[in-house]
Amino acid sequence: MNPKIVIATFIYFLLFNINYVKAQHVAVTKKWWKETVFYQIYMPSYADSNGDGFGDFRGMTQKLDYLQGIGVKGIWLTPFFTSPKVDNGYDIANYYEIDPTYGTKADFDFFEGSS
Prior knowledge:
two-stranded antiparallel ribbon
């Protein structure tokens, strides 16, 4: 057998295997939080389902298929708990009550279960 062919074949398989190992390493080391598309929803203005001028959970759930269709894998919601709204809702008054502007606890539970 020609030694040049043996060496060339050996080098080819060596390079192929190195590239394969590198590809496997890259696949394993990818971090989901670096690769995932997140979308922030500003609750007051996102999607209004009842015509009162404020976004709500029912309106949001109607848009989930659209968000998924454009590649969104995670949603970041701005505050939706009861608040005096001095600081755009970040001044939460009660961490256990949904602000009635955005819907009810049942509306939130439906949103949470629709993912």
